[in-house]
Design a protein that fits this description.
2 copies of one chain form a homodimer. Chain A is α/β, with parallel strands linked by helices and 296 residues long. Chain A has 2 domains: 173 residues, Rossmann fold (3-Layer(aba) Sandwich), CATH 3.40.50.720; 110 residues, 6-phosphogluconate dehydrogenase C-terminal like domain (6-phosphogluconate dehydrogenase C-terminal fold, Orthogonal Bundle), CATH 1.10.3660.10. Helices cover 53% and strands 13% of the residues of chain A. Chain A has 12 helices and 9 strands. In chain A, strands 3-2-1-4-5-6 form a 6-stranded parallel beta sheet. In chain A, strand 2, helix 2 and strand 3 form a beta-alpha-beta unit. The longest helix of chain A has 27 residues.
């Protein structure tokens, strides 16, 4: 006999990798929501979600999808939040919890708060989970297992609403942490967004090389470059929106990284062995820190 | 009944990950060398190599180690080549093949050619294989299996000597390719050396963040950063020497990458969605290229 479901009616706006995985874990467990409603904008995706059958209700009208739901999770690229919110806000049920799964949090508060109806509780969330695949077929119930989910509720948010979202993620197998949105955005800028910007960039740099070298690059891609291209295989819309919606933190981290890369380049040019060794050692020490935390 | 060994007496100068793996595959197969001689500079490593027992002869004096060998492979960091060569050159056997396993090739030709005795054949080689571990314990016979080895013999090198080295690597399970040293150095600068420089750098950038953010970075390191730190766990001496000995190609690739990263940063600042999407798509297309070549 499972626990009582946290939510009576859970509505997912967007059912790609993340939304599709939430729906699957909710179905698999039975103690997250009694009814799962799925909305997605594209007719093809809607049809595919019906075929896959992981939602109880598949609804093409976003206003109808959120009506009566006691929890709504936005699982679309963060750039679409303001538009979606304008459509759904008038139909949100008083007392409902509005949460999301976006990789930027300051922008979410910026885009959702102005339209938030009185009595609806906003609890921004970021499940730090994903794969290089996207779309409703890519989701699976175990995606969030053992991964962190960061909540960034604003001060004064209803603690009961925050706890519901936290409990949902714990039941999905995640470890839940809270912090303010600005800290979140800085942390993800360096651990995730900048590495992606770098990976996309280096692939382009390689692509611009003279034909002969470029062919050899593809042929001899050693492990270093392979790891970069794994990152670079990610979804276009999602990453464009992340970059544009975590602009300040990302540009700050890019500037810091760039200064550091040029300092190392300068040391290479001038043969400063000690400086280079120090930089390599620092990489190893961070690596050790990750291993101690069992993240590597 | 195995084929005749390619070499009567094969001498490894340096028996870390690469040298230790060559010794192991030679022993495992029996058709690479009749006798494997191992030399290493440090007494502790010498003792450990004796314990591990993967070489027929362990010799502390490099001059004695190379004496009588019909093949000598340098498996030390590329920065040590000139010093090693000064010691061993007078003792190399006429007709012997001198090869190596370094990740830079222009520097190898620069450092070894001036001291090369008449009648000794230099065949620079780069096995594109490795792990994040180092030392004689890290080696294993299968390390080179299915990996590329690039040979960069100068025009006019004895074809029989080149073929012996190529055949050795084929018997170790590798795919052998040839190109000129300058092309090699450019290709590895972008597929391997620049990714390592970037990985070392971003670890340092993270390490410099304010204490609170730094702790969170270690805690929440997403897959992007994890892939970077895997690269960054590599051997200090080896990578210092690679950077210093592929200086020009590496600085050229860093400059190109840096221009491209700043162009993408600028697009983020000014909200140029189309430019950002184009860069992400190029990353995906390179990724597809790798998958088609079964490298990913």
């Amino acid at each position: 006999m499972p626990d009582q479901p946290i939510f009576e009616r859970l509505c997912l706006i967007g059912v790609g990798l993340i939304g599709g995985s939430i729906a699957r874990v909710a179905r698999a467990r039975g103690d997250i929501a009694r009814t799962v409603v799925a909305h997605t904008r594209r007719p093809e995706t809607l049809a595919r979600v019906r075929e896959l059958g992981f939602a109880d209700v598949v609804e093409e009208d976003p206003a109808k999808a959120v009506a009566g739901a006691d929890a709504v999770i936005l699982c679309v690229p963060v750039g679409a939040y303001a538009g979606v919110m304008a459509t759904i806000a008038p139909h949100l049920k008083p007392g409902a919890v509005l949460t999301d799964a976006g990789s930027t949090k300051g922008s979410v508060i910026r885009d959702l708060t102005p339209l938030l109806p009185k009595g609806v509780h906003l609890v921004p969330a970021h499940p730090m989970a994903g794969t290089e695949h996207s779309g409703p077929d890519a989701g699976f119930a175990e995606l969030f297992h053992g991964r962190y989910v960061i909540l960034t509720p604003e001060p004064g948010t209803d603690p009961a609403a925050v706890e519901k979202v936290a409990e949902m993620w714990r039941r999905a197998g995640s470890m839940v942490e809270s912090m303010d949105a600005a800290t979140h955005d800085k942390v993800v800028a360096i651990v995730s967004h900048l590495p992606h910007l770098i990976a996309f960039t280096i692939c382009g740099t390689a692509d611009d090389l003279a034909e002969e070298t470029r062919e050899a690059v593809l042929k001899f891609a050693a492990s270093g470059f392979r790891d970069f291209t794994r990152i670079a295989a990610s979804d276009v819309d999602m990453w464009r929106d992340i970059f544009l919606n975590n602009r300040e933190a990302l540009l700050e981290m890019l500037a810091r990284f760039s200064e550091d890369a040029h300092a190392l380049g300068r040391a290479v040019r001038w043969g400063e062995a000690g400086f280079i060794e120090d930089r390599i050692r620092r990489g190893r020490s961070i690596r050790r820190g990750l291993i101690e935390r069992k993240q590597a």
